[in-house]
Each structure stands twice: as C-alpha cells, then as structure tokens.
C-alpha cells in the first residue's frame, strides 16, 4: 500500500491570509464550487467561524446582487413611464410580467432531440407558422435565460424595480459584469 502524502493546498496563499482565515489544513479543508465561484473553508468550524462566514456571505450576496441590479438598470415599463417608482413600473410592465411567467415548459423526448441533433440539455426556442398552423422548435442558441434564475431572486429584482428584460438579455448573451 502506498503511503498518502499530505499536500498543503494553501502553498500559494500568503501566511497572513491563512492565519486570518484560521485554516486548519490538518483537520481538512472543503471546497464549494459553482461556475465562477470557489469557496475554501475548514471542514470543521467553530460556531463563531460559522457566524463570520454567514455574515461575510450575506454581505457578499447583497453586494453582488446590487451590482447585477445596477448593470440591468431600472424598469421603465418598456418606455411607458407612469407615476410612481421603478418598482411600480415593473409591477405594471407587460414584459416583466411575461418574463416572470416563463416556465420553460417546452419538453421534447430525447429520441426526437437526437433525430434533430439537439442536445438533451439545450434550451429550445419556439416559432409559429400561422399559415400552416405549426409550432417550430429549434435549439435556442444560448445556455441561460431568466428561467434559470430562482423565483425568489426574481421576486427580489421585481420588487426592487430591476428591468427583467435587461436581466434576461444579460443572461442570454452571457454579458460580463464587473463585480470587482
């Protein structure tokens, strides 16, 4: 049996940062990952470490939420300014209402997707041919849209008056937003 070698994944992180984070390499570290995000933490944490982590993540979440909202701008009810605030305009905006109702309910069996050469994970787009009475489905050509945003976060944006049309466009175009 080969003896396991303990490797310190923190060799590139300055000692003062490791000390401030109270990393315990011997007890083990855990990674939480998502596209564009990496969180490195101790596997075992004190209650105060957890409180500090929750506080930090909450502040970070609020900060990046505000930056995404700023990048999308306020709803102007698609140019039909009324009385009130962006939140009230978003509540009256037909586009925002339509985007909130998107459920991405187009379901096509895998064997039909295979025949059309469309990956089973690809988003679909629908067009109509009114003359022939047909609905034509095709690959959407983008990976993300507003249907990928959790409903509770969409509601926060709507209540804040964020333009959901701009958010949908930013998602579809995979627009880069400076969150530095």
Description:
The chain is an alpha+beta fold and 180 residues long. The chain has two domains: 15-70, no CATH class; 73-172, no CATH class. It has seven helices and four strands, in the order αββααααββαα. The strands form two sheets. Strands 1-2 form a two-stranded antiparallel ribbon. A two-stranded antiparallel ribbon has the order 3-4. Helix 2 (47-72) crosses helix 7. The N and C termini lie far apart (47 Å).
Helices and strands, with pairings:
Layout: H1 15-21, E1 29-34, E2 37-42, H2 47-72, H3 86-92, H4 94-101, H5 110-116, E3 124-129, E4 134-139, H6 151-160, H7 164-172
Helix pairs in contact: 2-7
Sequence of strands across the biggest β-sheet: 1-2
Tally of DSSP β-strands:
4
Helix share bin:
40-55%
Largest sheet: 2 strands, antiparallel
| H/E element order | HEEHHHHEEHH
Features:
180 residues; alpha+beta; 2 domains
Task: Provide a short characterization of the protein structure.
The chain has seven helices and four strands, in the order H-E-E-H-H-H-H-E-E-H-H. The chain is an alpha+beta fold. It has two domains: 15-70, no CATH class; 73-172, no CATH class.
């Amino acid at each position: 049996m080969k003896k396991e070698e303990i490797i310190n994944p923190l060799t590139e992180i300055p000692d003062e940062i490791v000390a401030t984070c109270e990393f315990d390499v011997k007890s083990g570290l855990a990674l939480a990952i998502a596209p564009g995000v990496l969180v490195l933490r101790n596997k075992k944490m004190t209650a105060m470490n957890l409180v500090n982590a929750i506080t930090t993540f909450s502040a970070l979440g609020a900060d990046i939420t505000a930056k995404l909202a700023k990048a999308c701008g306020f709803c102007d009810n698609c140019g039909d300014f009324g009385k009130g605030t962006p939140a009230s305009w978003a509540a009256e905006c037909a586009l925002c209402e339509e985007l909130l109702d998107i459920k991405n309910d187009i379901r096509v069996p895998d064997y039909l997707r295979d025949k059309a050469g469309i990956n089973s994970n690809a988003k679909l787009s629908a067009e109509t041919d009114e003359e022939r009475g047909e609905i034509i489905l095709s690959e959407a050509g983008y990976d993300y849209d507003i249907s990928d945003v959790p409903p509770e976060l969409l509601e926060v944006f709507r209540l804040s008056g964020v333009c959901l049309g701009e958010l949908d466009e930013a998602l579809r175009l995979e627009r880069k937003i400076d969150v530095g």
